[in-house]
Amino acid sequence: MKIGSLRERLHSLRVRLRAVLRREEMESDLDDELRFHLAMRQQHYGDSGLGSEDARYAALRRFGNFTAFKEECRDMWNLGPVEGIGRLARFVAQDLRYGVRGLRQQPAFALLAVTTLALGIGAATTIFSVIQNVLLDPFDFSADRLVAIEIRDETGKGRGGRRMFPVPEFLDYKEQVGSFEDVIGGGYMDVVYTTPAGAEQLAGGFMTVNNFSFLGTPAALGRTLEAGDDQPGAPPVFVLTHKAWVVSFGKDPGVIGKSFVLNGVARTCVGVMGPRFYKLGADVYLPAVLDRANEEERRRPYMLQARLRQGVSLEEARTEVALVAERLAKVYPDRYPKRFTARVDSMIDSTVGSFRQTLYTLAAAVGLLLLIACANVANLLLARAIGRERELAVRASLGAGRSRLVLQMLVESLLLALLGAVLGCVLAHFGIRGIVAAIPDGLIPRQAVIRMNWPVLAFSLGVAVLTSVLCGLVPGLRAARRDVVEPLKGSGKGGAGDGARRRPLAGVLVVSEVALSLVLLSGAGLLIRSFMKLQNVELGFEPKGVLIARLAFPPGEYKSAGAGRVANEVTARLAALPGVVAVSTAGTSPPPFGSGTLMRLPGSASEPEPASIQIVGEGFFRTVGARLLRGRLLDEADVAGARKVAVVNQTLVARYFDGIDPLGRAIDLTGLATMQPDPVADPVFEIVGVVADFRNQGIREPALPQAIIPHTVTAGYGRGILLKAQGDARALLNGLEREVWAVDPRVAVTNVELLSDVLDRWQYAEPRLSLVIMSVFAGTGLTLVALGVFSVVAYTVSRRTHEIGIRMALGAERADVVRMVLRMALGLVGSGIALGLLGAVALARVLQAQLFGVTALDPATFASVALVLACVGLLAGYVPALRATRVAPMTALRQS
Amino acid sequence: MFSKPKKSAPGELLPGTLDMLVLKTLSRGALHGYAIAEFIERTSEDVLRVEEGALYPALHRLEVRGLLASEWGASDNNRRAKFYRLTPEGRKQLVHEASYWARMTSGIARIMASA
Lengths: 896, 115
Prior knowledge:
The complex is a heterodimer.
Chain A: H1 6-21, H2 23-47, H3 52-63, H4 66-77, H5 80-105, H6 107-136, E1 146-153, E2 161-162, E3 164-166, H7 167-176, E4 180-194, E5 199-207, H8 211-215, E6 219-222, E7 237-240, H9 242-249, E8 259-262, E9 265-273, E10 284-287, E11 301-308, H10 314-331, E12 340-346, H11 347-352, H12 355-387, H13 389-397, H14 402-438, H15 454-481, H16 486-489, H17 504-535, E13 546-552, H18 560-575, E14 580-587, E15 595-599, E16 609-616, H19 620-624, E17 628-631, H20 636-640, E18 645-649, H21 650-656, E19 666-668, H22 670-673, E20 684-691, E21 706-710, E22 719-725, H23 733-743, E23 748-754, H24 755-799, H25 801-809, H26 814-848, H27 859-885, H28 889-895
Helix pairs in contact in A: 1-5, 2-3, 2-4, 5-14, 6-12, 6-14, 6-15, 7-10, 12-15, 12-17, 12-24, 14-15, 17-24, 17-26, 17-27, 18-23, 24-26, 24-27, 25-28, 26-27
Chain B: H1 17-26, E1 31-32, H2 33-43, H3 55-64, E2 68-74, E3 80-86, H4 88-114
Antiparallel strand pairs in B: 1-3, 2-3
């Protein structure tokens, strides 16, 4: 055929489209048209004298092969892919109608299959919604090309990394790294908001004024900080976050343009940010002053974030930043560890951190669960297909092609999967709620809002389609390969050899289900074991009933003496409250973990090494329940006199005084000499006592050498209150604030928490989260496996009723029959366990990073998991086994 | 299931001529299939007798290509019949094919005459 013009093609497309949409009408038209011709010709012959029968035959002869020409006409419409799609659509519609009818006839099957799929799809959707909203798109701005810098200590002794840079260093990076298109910075500061009622502590952030335009985040009300706000002499302004606006300012739109006293300065509120703007976790943003020469401002530590120039890869940026960092390490030698790496990570990576690994593990787990669900449903479909052998055979013998039958099976499983997806999304809705409630603060970026959105729904739909292919393909191919004649011949009941042997696929499916489930279970088991180990770690202190709080002083007037005096008075008043066992002032960041510093032995020429320092009042040891090993604790005189004495931990002794009596020896806390503000001149401290280690770097890490010193030595660290209560410490919350304000109403009380809550959030919440989710998945998987084993065994038993009847007629005992059936169940489960153990061993490494105190190949875990599975398998086999023994031999024999 | 349509076999006529004859026949006005067959037969004085059924794939092909349009109407004896007429494209195609045919036949005639 000649290649037609575009117009011709369009026209033909229209005709074909009509052929697709109005097929029946076109068919009958064609028929009418051809019959009209025959009728006319017949009439013509009749007029010329032929009898009507003869005239009809003559007309047909003249016409030629009627059916063939009709078919040829039809082919005219059938050109091209449009027709193929149309036909497919017709078939699908047909199969859908048929499928719906089928499901309504078998509601139990439908319910089971849809629920199973809903569990799998719902779980997958839940996890994906977390991944989507945390890893892929956590911010309310585009994180594209945004990176953060971190200097990581690689000496193995330090506290990990540093992301903060004082002004000169910050500016050096900004100016020297060519890969950066633009840089933003900001940091935390306490802001005391003075109200007539008292002082309120706000979390403050100072920000380079380009932050908002850089991120493209407009203000919800008023304006953001702008260039010029940071210039000397500019009127002092600030911007509120949405949350602070709601909580502290009662959602009053009138705040814009009003003046508030923040840190003793009257500042005008110029704007309120949108509800998802959470940078620095602050309540208020003040403009940062980037001035190398400004003595007061230059010390502020800035977090540095940058946008890479278009076309610059992360690798290139890393190389360049590493070079700049090498150079800067020579300029600021005290700020760089001996060995370090300058890391440049995408903003998302640097905010999400280790949670990414957890999420990947959960994603893998949910994948396994989904596979189990698929195997189960495939099994159900397979069993159903066998019940439908006759129907399929009839269809095949009436000319349904192999692909047509596969299509039918796929459409039916797609129907199930879509129903499953709908129900799954409902489950996911609740799953997401549960996860959001369980995710501890600080684990994910605050901006991240975990919710069901379009990408999540699209994912869920995609999973449904994939699932339907996975479930439907196996029975579909089987249906296509099947012998057409055999099922039509017999009664449809099998003989003695029937059963699992005739359904090798079902066996394979159940075995793989068991294997997958074993992997899931062992994952959950390892996490549980690891969590138990975590909980049993000796902390070195007793967090029960301990309340911690931070005191926030307006800047300026509360140098060391002032802050110390307030803290002392407050502790004295608190000690008198009923229910208070012990109370102490302590440095913040939260005790007893202490703050990072550097130390060495006095007179030593070696580099100072990282250590932890905790500034305390004399009540500290009682409040946290420290265990004294040698010497004495700090007393009132040490604190009142600001003596340079220290109580140190075992690790410090082991590191610096191996085999020597440390009492009376001195340590040089070099970090204190350079600390801002209020450095300690000649910070050499005499050791007066040794206490048992606190896990001062977190439960998983070994303790860092730690020195506990009187808080009166320096005002350099924050001041907090540490209080041990008898009974419920929360009951003391109000009293705490009241007593502080009684001493000085300008001091704000903030971050009031139970020490156990802090520990929980820092140390237990994340592993518990993954353990709970993993256990839910594993439990669901196990239930599905039980169902799978049950259905296969029950099916086989029902097919072997005849055989069992004969056996019993020949004298087999009930116990023999039970044993026979259980052996079959155990055979399936046993092979699954063996296969699963191999898989679990292969996958163990993935989990290793999240484990604590157990190896990923923990034999106890694997053994107990295998035992659990075996028991569940036996149980699932026992019910059909019992049923088998109730077979009355005569009934069974008569059945055939 | 989704087999490609088979190519239509040409009738006993010279390949491609049936389309041209149909177009020519319809240049005088709308006709139904039977009338077209009758007209071709009568006008050619029974020289061109084809299996009449072969006409219909040709008609449908021409319609799909947009050279013909069709509508249902009543025949002379008041039966429901499908009438075909030329579209403007069909008319253009007829001119094109007629001139091509004229050149071909005159060329062939000259060769046949020379021998």
